[in-house]
Write a structure and sequence with these properties.
Blueprint: H1 24-38, H2 60-81, H3 88-101, H4 118-132, H5 143-153, H6 166-179, H7 186-197, E1 200-202, E2 205-206, H8 217-233, H9 241-255, H10 281-288, H11 296-311, H12 360-363, H13 370-373, E3 376-380, E4 385-390, E5 395-400, E6 435-437, H14 446-449, E7 457-460, E8 473-478, E9 481-488, E10 497-506, E11 509-518, E12 523-527, E13 531-533, E14 538-542, E15 545-549, E16 555-562, E17 571-580, E18 583-592, E19 599-610, H15 616-619, E20 623-628, E21 631-636, E22 641-643
């Protein structure tokens, strides 16, 4: 695929960057195009950028501030990274915006900072941008404007934030106040930094607040802001905390390259995916804080590969704007708090421009990603994930046995509880699925998620209503095996039925072993990955297998190895439209069982996502399954055996 011509990029450099061809000049050109594209949407004083698209629940003025603040972070990377040697109009626009945004008489003033207000999020971006551009913007502001900016930020002092990554917005903003000699609360800063200690659970992983909340917020918030705070506080003011944050980020980055496919795509999982290449923030911060375990050539290859991946697929769009979606506009990828300027948190993906042009990250030759060198298997027991990459097609798959984005229930569940689901919990297509990947997205549109077919094992009520996964209880995650259980509920039935699932990786395959509790007459259904494209995927099925394939050769298949004894019509491909972030036409292969006799049953499924040719009938002979009570033994053609 070629990069959209409106980006006006320089020629590629295949000597320095043999994998992507991209250099620092490509990053600068992309940033310049994105910033220039915003100017038609600025208010007269440049305090707000009111972009086209669906408004957030915070309203048009808050959304306009969001456009200023998040793009200011991008401008700051560009200005500071060039030592101020940029078009003077860029610095003038943001200096003017600061003056107008903090002037109640301007007609475009920003909302005051109040407890738990969206303005708190945006203030943190303004604080970071002001710090990084201090010689070119803050130090040149009129004293009266500086006073108004300080007055606006003072709404943080003693204020209340949401008890998650928002605590860090207060930390960095009040540290900026301290850096310019303004009143601030040391207890607010220390309290926020102390609070995140409760959420650090080891191996470089935080949860975003209480519960099992694992997604890209760990990298672009929980690791990022503590070290941005340290940049503002300076080595004399961090109290030794930054050494801890640097060590944690270093550990996190050891595994992080395994989340990216050979084509640069990040695994499509979690909320706020419209931030896109903000996923690069921890990679750049590792280099900025001099704590990365990644070689300089790998850092740039990973980052440039991801930015180019989106540029090749129309991001930013023909106007130079970031839309609410993944590639094109796709609102089911967003949340109610997402406004038309929300995608500009992608500015965090440009933090590498703060590194000088002669830094080795920009001058070293590119190195291959892990998935470009070999097949990879990465167990992450802390979040309960297996990452599985295949070199021949560059796809990385995430097998999810740990992240559900639900708060912990009161008193915590116990394994023997009568109600193992705790009577609570919601499910979200970006958290509740058994698997995600760099080549697929879940069926996220409400009409499709109501059917809840892809990457999910469900009990079906007589009316066809599927059970949900909701709260995930991790059991095991090591080597190439991960396991968890969840509780399934059916309409009109007060009981919670336990479903235990173990995933075993072998070659390009995932084998899922399910132990299912179900009432009499319920049907068990399992779906594979949803594939999507500009044209309708092809579909085929046979006894115990189903396959969907896109026009560009991506195949998703499910093959029943044990316990799938439904009739010939119970292996099918479900189709949908406007349900998937990867394309307007999507398809999901799935299996259905015969009506359940009640009690426990075992079901074993081979799940395939590949750009190779897939022959499901042949795959049925590739894995031997022996079931003996609660023990299931899998035997593979290379002699490997796994007991579940």
């Amino acid at each position: 695929m070629s990069v959209a011509p409106h980006l006006q990029l320089p020629p590629t450099d295949r000597i320095l960057s043999s994998r992507t061809g991209w250099t620092r000049a490509h990053w600068e050109a992309t940033a310049d195009r994105m910033l220039d594209a915003l100017t038609p949407y600025a208010t007269p004083g440049f305090a707000q950028y009111r972009l086209p698209g669906r408004n957030s629940w915070s309203g048009v003025v808050s959304d306009g501030l969001e456009g200023f603040a998040r793009s200011f972070l991008l401008a700051a990377c560009r200005i500071a990274g060039a030592g101020g040697a940029v078009d003077p109009a860029l610095t003038e626009r943001y200096a003017a915006g600061l003056a107008a945004g903090t002037d109640p008489a301007s007609g475009e003033a920003w909302p005051r900072l109040t407890d738990c207000s969206q303005q708190m999020v945006e203030a943190a971006s303004v604080a970071v941008a002001l710090h990084e551009t201090r010689p070119w913007i803050w130090d040149r502001l009129d004293a009266r404007v500086q006073e108004r900016v300080v007055d606006w930020f003072s709404g943080f002092v003693g204020g209340r934030t949401w008890d998650n990554n928002w605590r860090l917005f207060q930390v960095v903003s009040e540290q900026f106040l301290a850096s310019v000699g303004a009143p601030y609360s040391r207890s607010d800063i220390e309290g926020g930094l102390d609070r995140i200690e409760d959420w650090y659970i080891g191996d470089g992983w935080y949860t975003d607040g209480s519960g099992r909340n694992f997604d890209y917020y760990i990298g672009w918030a929980m690791h990022l802001y503590p070290l941005l705070w340290a940049r503002i506080a300076g080595p004399e003011g961090d109290g030794g905390r930054s050494a801890v944050y640097r060590e944690r980020l270093s550990r996190f980055l050891e595994d992080y390259p395994h989340f990216f496919g050979g084509d640069g795509a990040p695994v499509h999982q979690g909320r706020s995916l419209c931030y896109r290449f903000a996923a690069l923030a921890p990679v750049w911060m590792g280099a900025l804080a001099d704590c990365t375990p990644l070689a300089p050539g790998l850092t740039r290859r990973l980052a440039s590969g991801t930015l180019r991946h989106f540029a090749e697929r129309g991001v930013p769009d023909e106007r130079g704007l970031l839309t609410l979606g993944w590639y094109d506009t796709f609102l089911p990828t967003t949340q109610p708090y997402s406004g038309p300027a929300s995608p500009y948190w992608a500015s965090k993906g440009f933090l590498g421009l703060l590194l000088p042009a002669d830094h080795e990250v920009w001058t070293a030759r590119e190195l291959p990603l892990p998935v470009e060198e070999s097949d990879t298997y990465t167990a992450l027991p802390t979040p309960g994930w297996l990452l599985h990459g295949t070199r021949n097609d560059g796809i990385v798959r995430l097998v999810n046995h740990g992240s559900d984005h639900n708060p912990p229930p009161p008193g915590q569940e116990t394994e023997g509880a009568a109600d193992p689901d705790g009577g609570a919990g919601e499910d979200d297509p970006h958290y509740a699925k058994l698997a995600y990947s760099t080549a697929t997205a879940p069926e996220a549109a409400p009409h499709a998620f109501a059917r809840n077919i892809d990457s999910h094992l469900a009990l079906l009520a007589p009316d066809g209503t599927p059970s949900r996964r909701r709260r995930i209880h991790p059991v095991r995650c090591e080597d190439r095996v991960a396991a968890s259980w969840s509780a399934a509920r059916l309409p009109g039935d007060e009981r919670a039925y336990r479903i235990g699932t173990t995933s075993v990786l072998h070659g390009p395959w995932e084998i899922r072993v399910h132990r299912v509790e179900a009432p009499e007459g319920a049907v068990v259904r399992e779906g594979g990955h949803a594939v999507a494209h500009e044209s309708s995927p092809s579909a085929s099925s046979g006894p115990g297998w189903a396959l969907a394939r896109t026009a560009d050769g991506l195949s998703s298949a499910v093959v029943g190895l044990y316990g799938w004894d439904g009739g010939p019509e119970d292996a099918q491909v479900a189709r949908d439209v406007e349900a998937n972030a990867y394309g307007p036409y999507s398809a999901v292969p799935y299996l259905r069982s015969a009506p359940h006799p009640a009690g426990r049953s075992v079901h074993v499924t081979l799940v395939v996502l590949s750009r190779d040719n897939v022959h499901p009938e042949a795959l049925r002979t590739a894995v031997r399954v022996r079931v003996d009570g609660d023990a299931v033994t899998l035997g593979f053609l290379d002699g490997r055996t796994v007991e579940v």
